[in-house]
Amino acid sequence: MKTFLRYLITTVVGLLIVLAIVLAKNVFAAELKDAMQIWCDAFFVAGVVLVCIGCIVLASNGGVFYMLGYAVSLFFSTLLSSKVTRKYKTYYDYREAKQEKKKSFVYILVVGLVLIAIAAIFLWQYYTV
C-alpha cells in the first residue's frame, strides 16, 4: 500500500505540472496540431522534472551531499552552541548515520519516464496530423 501511495502522489504531482503548463498555454483555444504540441511539451517537461528529481535523490543516496549537510549542521550547532549539543561529533559519524537512511527513488524515475513516453506518443500524433 505504501508503494502504491508513493506512485499515486508522484503521478498526481506530475499531472499537476502538466495541467499548469496546459492551462498557461491555453490549449483549449488552440487548433489540433498546436494542441498536440502543447500536450507533448507539457508531458515532456513534467517527465524531465521528475526524472531530474529522481537523479538528485540517487546522487544524494550515493553521498554527494553529505559534506554539505554536515557543514550546515556544524554551522548551526556552532551558532547555537550554548543551546544545542552537537548530534554528530565527526564527519564519519554523520556519514554513517546518513548511509543508514537511504531513500527510495525508483518510483520517481518510473513516473517521469512514463510521462516522457506519453510525450513521445503526443509527438508521434503531432507529426501524423
Shape: elongated
Structural class: mainly alpha
- As residue ranges, the low-confidence spans are none
The first-to-last residue Cα distance is: 41 Å
Number of helices: 5
Order of helices and strands: HHHHH
Name the average pLDDT: 90
Number of domains: 2
Q: How many strands, which pairing sense, and closed or not: the largest β-sheet? A: none
Q: Helicity, in percent?
A: over 70%
Count of DSSP E strands? 0
C-alpha Rg (nearest Å): 21 Å
How much of the sequence lies in strands comes to: under 5%
Can you tag this structure with a few keywords?
129 residues; mainly alpha; 78% helix; elongated
Describe this structure in words.
With 129 residues, the protein is mainly alpha-helical. The chain has two domains: 1-62 and 105-129, no CATH class; 63-101. 78% of the residues lie in helices and 0% in strands. It is built from five helices and no strands. It has helices at residues 2-25, 32-61, 66-79, 91-99, 106-128. The two termini are 41 Å apart. The mean pLDDT is 90.
Summarize the structure.
With 129 residues, the chain is mostly helical. The chain is built from 5 helices and no strands.
